[in-house]
Amino acid sequence: MSAELKHKQTTAPAVQVRGLSVVYATNQGDLPAVRQVDLDIEARKITGIIGESGSGKSTLVMAMMNAVGKPGQIVSGSVEVLGVGDMLSIDRERQRKARGKELGLVFQAAQNSLNPLRRIGHQVLDLGRSHEVKDLRDLLRKAKDLLARLGMDADRVLASYQHELSGGMRQRVGIMFALILDAKIVILDEATTALDMLSQASVLEIVRELHKERGLTTILVTHDMGVVADMADRVVVMYGGEIVEEGPSEFVLSHPAHPYTQGLVRAIPRISGDIDRAVPLQGAPADLKTYLEPGCPFYQRCSVAMPKCQESRPTSLAVAQDRKVACFKVTDHD
Amino acid sequence: MIEVEHLRKVYSTKGSLLNRSQVHAVRDVSFRIPEGGAISFIGESGCGKTTVGRILAGLETPSAGIVRLDGVNIHQVAARERRNLLRKIQLIHQDPYQALNPAYPIEQALSAPLRIMAKQKGDTPRTWIRDRMEEVLTMVGLDPASVLYKYPHMLSGGQRQRIVIARALTVEPTVLVADEAVSMIDVSLRLGVLRLLRDLREKLNISLLFITHDVAAARYLGSGGQISVIYKGLIVEQGPTEGIISRPQHPYTQALLSAVPVLKGLERMGADRFILAKEMNAQSAAETGCLFADRCPFAQERCFSEAPTLIDGDYQYACHFPEVRQVAAVAAE
User: Fold this and answer.
1) Model pTM above 0.95
2) Does residue B240 belong to the interface with chain A, where contact is any CB pair within 8 Å?
3) Which of A125, A160, B146, B250 could form a disulfide with A164 if both were Cys (CB 3.0 to 4.6 A apart)?
4) DSSP conformation class of B291
5) Does residue B159 form part of some domain?
6) What's the rounded Cα separation, in Å, for the pair B312 and A192?
């Protein structure tokens, strides 16, 4: 029985996204920022979502929490979160509770998500009250334990305002807030992008340790292939509002299939290997016009594009076990 | 050729005379960049690397030390001449989104410095400004016809940074100071800008001071590049780029190299990789001993009492107990 249960736990995805579309209302009409995305986030794994600015990666994770800000609007789809239900159809109060309780989010700029006028300790209490935590003392104790676990002087941090903390410390406070209500799914949206190399490495190390200790499901959203390659079990590559490739990160890096992923991997400045093997990717990142094209969003920059690519959009198909690619060159075999 | 000797910069904080405190942003920095050479300053935020760049660009006056451009000490000449000298040193900022005036099309951003130059040069043909604009835009890999009349918001981050570089090139500089010039650019375009800086070095013989926290980016500036690792305003290790990456001596350099993410599937982790957990404490007043001792995982008693000095030579480092550690990732193939 317990073995069966365990099996179930490992196979049921923590988040199951189906047919998700988000549009932004502009004066040129509705622009699809996320288009018909299907995605399974495996429980207890680190999933990296990678894409350039404007690829729709942040919109996608905000939509997972049903927290897309105006002028964005979710037009279709469902987001089944394990233990919560469909985030897009449950009542608003349950959604609000789920954000923080089941789904923890760490933002890129933690200074923008912390209240500059209240001490960190007070904000912990605020969070407790808004989530109707009975024992606030216990919550503070938990906060202290977590902060100590994150390598900080807990008493000092709780008594500080956000401007008294360094960038790396604020980001750790952000992680503390994401975990304090025992969220099992943690989303880090560009959480280390603003940090320098050393703070980034130590924050990532902490994320890795906590992920293991608490059996978390971690979603890393970033534009840095290095971070994903170092941390993630699975990588999801987004371009122009669509998922163009996904699979185990080691294989995607060593054998990228989609021309965009190939270009991206080649374009990473590395500290190992021959520097002349790195080639810059041509063209400009996807912009609003790209979203409206009928063909493949990568068509303009693709070196192996066919006439077909301009006319119709490739759909994401499984090319191997656990591996999906949206490219005619890869999926067509006739 | 630019030479810097024993550069120092001390900022005093505001306050009453009694509790005024001093911040040593740059303690002692010496280096020289030959014509067409490249040096990368590497360190975390708050280590003083940006201040070095600002002093070179003439935005700050050093508290002590000498900056020599082609043999002339730029702080010992008349103001007018200094302005002319400093024009040879151009600064490229980190954020291409803020470096361009959003209300002006690219054409105006580029023609403003050129008009001044045309006046100084005297008899230039009427089309000179226009030709020069097209020349620099082509040099940075942009199509003049398509970008010249655009506004900054119509361009991508990579294109904007190219415009900023083109603007710096209009005045025919001999030194470019690039302060985190690629860190705000999309990853897919980053390498393109690094390539461009490398081409400028090789084709125009421009010397490059590249300020970054990304060790990997420093490799792409081309051959003969040097790395200076800077910590709390002091150079702790200095040498050829490949040497620093493969055989780092100083624990701080090793910490920086360990912090570079490992590309699983393409690279293997360095055998001695370690993650520095302690953050830099800017206030720590321990002025005796090695500045890095309080964070160094290999610190011994001597490190706290006696400051190490930079060993002279092609490859310099300041550490009592230097030891090569294999921390950088290595290619898996």
Assistant:
1) no
2) no
3) A160
4) T
5) no
6) 37
Measured CA to CA, the distance from residue A41 to residue A284 in angstroms comes to 29
**Any idea where the domains of chain A sit in the sequence?**
2-102+183-331
Task: Give the minimum alpha-carbon distance from A304 to chain B in angstroms, rounded to a whole number.
Answer: 18
Alpha-carbon span A241 to B185, nearest angstrom: 19
In B204-233, the residues whose Cβ lies within 8 Å of chain A are: 213-217, 219-220
CB-based contacts of A241, cutoff 8 Å, min separation 6:
A32, A33, A34, A35, A37, A55, A56, A59, A286, A291, A297
Chain A contact probe: residue of B142, B147, B198, B263 with most A CBs at under 10 A? B263
The H-assigned helical ranges of B171-250 are: 187-204, 215-219, 241-246
Name the burial class of residue B189, with classes exposed (0-12), middle (13-18) and buried (19+) by CB atoms within 10 angstroms of its CB: buried
CB B48 within 8 A of CB B55: no
Q: Which two tokens stand for residue B243?
A: 């040497």
Report the domain count for chain B. Answer: 1
Range of the domain at B195: 2-88+173-247
According to CATH, the topology of domain A2-102+183-331 is: Rossmann fold (3.40.50)
CATH of the domain at B189: 3.40.50.300
Q: Is residue B216 part of a domain?
A: yes
ipTM confidence score: 0.85
Helical ranges in B205-272 per DSSP H: 215-219, 241-246, 251-258
Distance from CA of A270 to the nearest CA of B (A): 5
Partners of B178 in the beta sheet?
Answer: B92, B210
Residues of A in contact with B266 (CB under 8 A): 229, 253-254, 265, 270, 272-273
Within-domain flag for B182 = yes
For B31-45, the pLDDT digits (tens) are: 999 999 999 999 988
Which residues share a beta bridge with B68? Answer: B3, B73
More confident residue, A210 or A5: A210
What pLDDT, on a 0 to 100 scale, did the predictor assign at position B94? 83
Residue A333 pLDDT > 80, yes or no? no
Task: Tell me if B188 and A264 make a contact (CB, 8 A cut-off).
Answer: yes
Rounded to whole angstroms, the Cα distance separating B28 from B9 reads 9
**Distance of alpha carbon A316 from alpha carbon A258, whole angstroms:** 11
Q: Which residue has the higher pLDDT, B19 or B283?
A: B19
Phi, psi dihedrals of residue B190, rounded to the nearest 5°: -60, -45
Q: Which residues, listed in sequence order, are joined to residue A39 by a DSSP beta bridge? A: A17
